[in-house]
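RECORD TYPE: inverse folding
INPUT: structure tokens
STRUCTURE:
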């Protein structure tokens, strides 16, 4: 039987944020407009973070203002704090995401805060999102390995997932930020997380540094997950995770899922064209 599996496109945000050269707003908009034709339900297009931390994402409001919005697509943005939340609301993002870490080293490097400090900030954002009726997703980074602290214990991931759940995240995306997660450790992590949140409210977010992202997708599929984040053209990395390669490529994930009789509902021709745009934006 064909299974429905959703690919959540994160290329315009997670992919492009790591590019050293400043990419023009027009190029970002062209990429997003192409992606909007592919059949995605959700596309992450911006981050309302400090431009000192991630200069590449400084034009998020312009990007959201200039894209041709497709009614059926939810355009998502990252918001680390209330300032980011206010920016995302003003720019008419359809949903927001708060993003924590399961490891202290990455939390400090990415958010300049301990895990508990970051969760306290997110609680304000979550309350505001609830009051606005704004859907809120959660991310947990470094679910198996941290570039600063090494191996991450499954229980540490489950604790942050539970905190994001309690704040009202409708779904939590589990990030192998470094892309070095071994399938057996991903499986152990999922076993712990599933004690806190059901599979239909979890997403897999695998980077492909060690070339094992698709194996990790299979592990997550076997655990019942049906949503995976990916970036066209395998764009990405993470500015605060030295050594992290790109996200698993949308087109490779889509082909992999089809081989497993999973239906993503995506138009292969359009994602192929979007991957070409992504690669050319990167090359210029
Ligand atoms: P801080 O320096 O501790 O905060 O950074 P601050 O409050 O002192 O602010 C510093 C400056 O930024 C101030 O400006 C603020 O006004 C400004 P100044 O007074 O110096 O001129 N500022 C902002 N500007 C615009 N929008 C904002 C904002 N907030 C403060 N929202 C902070 C703390 C959280 C702001 C910072 O650490 C930050 O922006 N971090 C974001 C880093 C980031 O975006 N990382 C990549 C995304 S996470 C990721 O990729 C992983 C993921 O894909 C999953 C996975 O793969 O694992 C999600
Ligand atoms: Mg990521």
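DESIGNED SEQUENCE:
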């Amino acid at each position: 039987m064909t299974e429905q599996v959703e690919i959540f496109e994160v290329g315009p945000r997670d992919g492009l944020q790591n590019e050293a050269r400043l990419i023009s707003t027009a190029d970002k908009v062209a990429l997003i407009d192409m992606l909007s034709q592919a059949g995605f339900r959700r596309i992450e297009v911006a981050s309302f973070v400090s431009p000192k931390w991630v200069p590449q994402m400084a034009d998020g409001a312009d990007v959201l203002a200039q894209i041709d919005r497709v009614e059926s697509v939810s355009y998502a943005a990252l918001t680390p704090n209330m300032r980011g939340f206010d920016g995302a609301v003003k720019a008419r993002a359809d949903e927001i995401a708060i993003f924590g870490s399961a490891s202290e080293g990455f939390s400090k490097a990415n958010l300049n805060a301990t895990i508990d400090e970051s969760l306290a900030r997110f609680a304000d954002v979550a309350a505001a999102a609830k009051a606005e009726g704004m859907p809120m997703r959660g991310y947990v980074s470094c679910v198996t390995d941290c570039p600063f602290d090494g191996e991450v214990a499954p229980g540490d991931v489950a604790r942050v997932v539970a905190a994001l759940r309690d704040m009202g995240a409708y779904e939590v995306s589990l990030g192998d930020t470094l892309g070095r997660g071994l399938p057996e450790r991903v499986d152990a992590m999922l076993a712990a997380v599933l004690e806190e949140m059901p599979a239909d409210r979890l997403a897999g977010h695998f980077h492909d540094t060690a070339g094992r992202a698709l194996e990790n997708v299979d592990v997550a599929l076997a655990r019942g997950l049906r949503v995976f984040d990916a970036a066209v053209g395998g764009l990405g990395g993470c500015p605060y995770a030295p050594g992290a390669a790109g996200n698993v490529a949308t087109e490779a994930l889509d082909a992999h899922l089809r081989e497993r009789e999973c239906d993503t509902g995506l138009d292969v021709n359009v994602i192929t064209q979007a991957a070409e745009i992504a690669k050319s934006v990167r090359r210029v």
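NOTES: Residues 115-132 form the longest helix (18 residues).
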